[in-house]
Amino acid sequence: MKGGILLSHKTKILSTGVLRRHSSTEFLTVEAMNVDPNDSRSVTVQMFDWSSGSPVLISMADPTTQTIPPNQYRTFRSFELTPSTFAYEVRIVHPKDKDVVTNVFGLSDIAFDPQEGNNVLQHDLAKLKLR
């Protein structure tokens, strides 16, 4: 177990790295899709405020771990970010298979529009090896 996440050789940890917050970004969200036609997949998301130079967990509106049924998706959302949050990271833990796809977005406060510069698609997420 590392940082509250149960790790195994069958999981993959992905990170946005530290991102600078766009001035219109009020919320963080992760969209996680399971395209497996038969089996559910478990996904865990953690969001960190790095503004102090060290990671501090950001409170989330949705459960941090969700089981995604076959051919469905789930959303993981933060509560509204504090004004002092200017640097953040999102980490995602999911099975080491290609049936789960995740994307990270910084959203505005009114229309929940994705904010330019605060969007990280799965192919841009860094793979971590926490021990």
Q: Helix/strand-derived class?
A: mainly beta
The helicity comes to under 10%
* Beta fraction: over 45%
- Name the helix and strand elements from N-terminus to C-terminus, one letter apiece: EEEEEEEEEEE
**How does the major sheet shape up?**
7 strands, antiparallel
Number of strands: 11
Low-pLDDT stretches are none
Average residue-wise pLDDT: 88
Distance, first to last CA: 9 Å
Tell me the Rg in angstroms.
14 Å
Count of alpha and pi helical runs: 0
- Overall shape: it is globular
Structural write-up:
With 131 residues, this protein is mainly β. Helices cover 0% and strands 48% of the residues. The chain has no helices and 11 strands. The strands form 2 sheets. Strands 1, 2, 4, 5, 6, 8 and 11 form a 7-stranded antiparallel β-sheet that branches. Strands 7-3-9-10 form a 4-stranded antiparallel β-sheet, with no helix packed on it. Strand 9 and strand 10 form a beta hairpin. The relative contact order is 0.34.
SSE topology:
Elements: E1 11-15, E2 19-20, E3 27-34, E4 41-49, E5 56-57, E6 65-68, E7 72-77, E8 87-95, E9 100-107, E10 114-120, E11 126-128
Antiparallel strand pairs: 1-8, 1-11, 2-8, 3-7, 3-9, 4-5, 4-6, 4-8, 9-10
Short summary:
The chain is mostly beta strands.
